[in-house]
Write a structure and sequence with these properties.
The protein has helices spanning 2-8, 25-38, 55-66, 77-80, 90-98, 115-124, 142-154, 168-178, 194-203, 208-223, and strands at 13-15, 43-45, 47-48, 73-75, 103-105, 130-132, 158-161, 183-184. By secondary structure, it is of the alpha/beta class. Helix 3 runs parallel beside helix 5 (90-98) and helix 6 packs parallel to helix 7.
């Protein structure tokens, strides 16, 4: 990861746990915390839990934030198989709110984390910052774009990431309508190449100030770097 950052000229990254073969997310949280400790300040780590595990998920998130020093929560409805708008998600978000950390949602997945579902959760917790991956949609066209804009309009605390959003005009439209502070550059490495993902922002029609916000300023604010 650090080599990929160097190749793309990126100073710092947010590191998220992948789902281990054991399905024990605590192992992945430990691995991220170890990587952060060894990265000399270049990585900011977030924790991952499965809200369907109820109290165990809340305790693991508490451990990850307090003992491991991680700085946010990742929810992955597709890989853990839950609806992001399900009320069973609320307890872990309450823990994140109690520690004043952001919640990243793996978004855009059919039936589980589509834009309006993510927006519904964000509206329930207006004092929590939510960051949706994939531009809150995987299709990047048609009604998906409309739903993304409806979700952003209804939840001022909702942000989106640029990773994989091949339509620069969509990103430009979000910035024009809602402001540059609502969009964060992301690479989705190692699934995608950070060098190309940076170009998605650089190729779009932004002012220097807007581009600087998308490429780092907004993430520094959200994760308090």
């Amino acid at each position: 990861m650090l080599a990929a950052l160097d190749a793309a000229g990126i100073e710092r990254a947010v590191a998220c746990p992948v789902k281990p073969r054991s399905y024990q997310l605590a192992e992945a949280n430990d691995a991220v915390a170890e990587a952060v400790a060894e990265a000399d300040g270049r990585l900011v780590g977030v924790a991952r839990v499965d809200p369907l595990q109820g109290g165990d998920a809340c305790r693991e998130l508490e451990r990850s934030l307090v003992e491991l020093g991680l700085r946010g929560l990742l929810l992955h409805p597709w890989e853990e198989t839950f609806r992001i708008s399900d009320r069973r998600v609320d307890p872990v978000v309450e823990v994140a709110r109690g520690h004043d950390v952001p919640v990243i949602v793996a978004a855009g997945y059919p039936w589980l984390s589509e834009a309006l579902q993510v927006g519904e959760l964000a509206r329930r917790f207006p004092d929590v910052t939510f960051v949706a991956t994939n531009g809150i949609q995987l299709n990047i066209s048609g009604l998906g774009q409309v739903d993304a804009e409806l979700a952003l309009a209804a939840a001022p605390n909702l942000r989106l990431q640029t990773a994989g959003v091949y339509r620069e005009d969509f990103i430009e439209g979000v910035v024009r309508r809602f402001g540059a502070e609502r969009v964060l550059y992301a690479s989705a490495y190692p699934l995608l190449d950070p060098r190309l993902e940076v170009r998605r922002v650089q190729w779009a029609a932004f002012s220097d100030e807007e581009a600087a916000a998308l490429l780092g300023g907004n993430a520094r604010a959200v994760f308090r770097v």
